[in-house]
Amino acid sequence: MRFRQIHLDFHNSPLVPMGESFNKKLWQERLKQAEADSITCFSLCHHGMSYHPTKVGVMHPNLKYDLLRAQIDASHEIGVNVPIYLSCGVNEEAFARNPGWMTLDHTGHWFGWTKSPFEAGFHKLCLNTSYMDYFCELLAEAVTRYPDADGVFIDITVQNPCCCPRCIEGMLAAGLNPEVDADRRKFARQVLMEYYRRTTKTVHDIDPNMRLFHNGGNIPMGDTEILPYFTHLEAESLPTGGWGYDHFPMSAAYCRNLGYDFIGMTGKFHTTWGEFGGFKHPNALRYECSAMLAYGSGCSIGDQLHPSGILDESTCELIGQAYREVKVKEPWCKDISSVAKIGVLGSKMFQSAPGTPASDTGISRLLLESHLPFDFILPTVDFGKYSLIIVPESENMPQELIGKLKKYLADGGKIVGSGKALNSGLFPEVEDCGAGIADPDYLHPAPEFAPHWVKTPFISYGTARKIKLNGGKSLGDIHNPYFQRSYKHFSSHRQTPFETEASGFAAGVITGNTLYFAHDVFSLYAAWGKAALKYFVVNALQSLLGDDIQLRSSLLSTQRVSLLEQKAENRMIMHLLYGPGIKRGGQFLNHETGEKFGFSTLEIIEDLPPAPPTEIDLLCDRPVSTVRIVPEGKEVPFVQENGRIKFTAPAFECHQMIEISFK
């Protein structure tokens, strides 16, 4: 896989001029300016326009030549790869000719970017209609026409629960009830799997070695059924497009362990896809590319080509500033594997609802901010490589998994659970007394687990499971409010004050190899971001880990760290990141028109202040020969004793790589 890719969006109305200024020499100059080694170019866009002659589809009416061929030839001439792009789930030209191909929700409304025929926006097509015959013909034509393409990127590979006549007929034939949401989702899944089979067969019947990626917005955690249809993974995660800066590290913590080549994808836009004239600050793109390297992936930056066919000069320089740095770092970022000692079994793997569960987001944020390296893992992996496993906040863990976790405990592993995980039976020292009723209740940690600035009960923003202990050490007490706030009785602005006497139920328990929190602490941290809760949880985690804690450091909560290994080079690479974000933007009311304007609140990186020197204390039982700052090659003094290595990482800006070479 190439490490410096551009994903070149190109969605054009048939009303705009097309490709009139494409120039081979200028195209090549701009790619060199961007330091790109791969650029994804378009065969078929969301508007249903093809950018080459076609016997199946509709060539853009204002295009007079084969633009895709010109882009491929010009790029290949300077050693730049060109995967080709086809939009699947959106095709406006097909929609206009065949409105019966639309996806309908259970109320009879169209799915898509818009709900009204008088609003501008794309329409989502149903993959269970004869549209799929048409799309597979377009796909076969593109792969046959461009055998020298360096891969195929199929976009909008999503099947929403649909109630079009074809889907209702299919659900009834399959014994499913179209009136039941769960059955609609089950049938949509069947349709999606048929999409994967058909499109993959279409491509690989023509060229078995063609790279192929299906983009449905993200790599769904735990969904191993779809992986055989991918040749590599691309994790779309535009921080300013709604994902935020914490999303990619979580996605990468899962993707890098699946055995696939893997790239991350951000965008050069100030906001998100489709933005002409939008430029983020160069420091933001520099940080985002550094983060992709730090978490184990190559880089892809989204851009949008102007209909003229000219790559934007400012964009290419913006990308080039980031990619010049990536280029010199690549030798330390290829063929890596994670050496994290904490494994997380995400809740997403045990639920079918769309979206990322709050608990998974909360775990990721909490561990990132506490500098405890982690992987999101499949239930099928070898648990023995991890010192500690965090189990999902779920009542639905399979018995087979529970049995495997019990064996892991018996073999000396450590397990952390919270809230609903009590039903697993992994915490026998806990007596379950039922669901709590105080919402919210108050948490009073035991002194050794309390945040250093809080000695009294603090609001949990949730409800603890009522538990009593038959062993182990209590994490603290639960205090109930005097009464539940309602219209009948309330006190002050928000919560009712807590009773001074504890409820008699524990906030959790820690034993030699288990840790259980009575609250859904990870979901609560995702939702509320309460620092006191984080310190309570982390203090308990560190107590459970003891000498097995992988990293102790003086890193700031806004800094990030990852640990990756290059086995072939006999070295470990520690990545340090620092790019504090600020909040900007928002939606406001135009009092003259009554309409809202603005973008939802953006997390922006603009300044990259220097990170201070950092004390590092790292678990490392292999003899170390050198510690160096790379690529500069500056050696760092270190001490290795008692299975740990200690050194001071010097001050840095944005991203620092520390090479730890073994004897």
Short description:
Helix content is 25%, strand content 23%. It has 663 residues and is α/β, with parallel strands linked by helices. Helix 1 packs across helix 2 (67-77), helix 1 (24-34) packs across helix 9 and helix 4 packs parallel to helix 6 (181-206).
Secondary structure layout:
Layout: E1 4-9, H1 24-34, E2 38-44, E3 49-50, E4 58-59, H2 67-77, E5 84-87, H3 92-97, H4 131-145, E6 152-155, H5 165-173, H6 181-206, E7 212-215, E8 233-236, H7 247-255, E9 262-267, H8 282-294, E10 298-304, H9 313-329, E11 337-338, E12 342-344, H10 358-370, E13 374-376, E14 388-390, H11 399-410, E15 414-418, E16 430-432, E17 442-445, E18 458-459, E19 467-469, E20 473-474, E21 476-479, E22 508-510, E23 514-517, H12 521-528, H13 531-545, E24 551-553, E25 559-566, E26 571-578, E27 582-584, E28 588-589, E29 596-597, E30 602-604, E31 614-619, E32 624-630, E33 634-635, E34 638-641, E35 644-649, E36 654-662
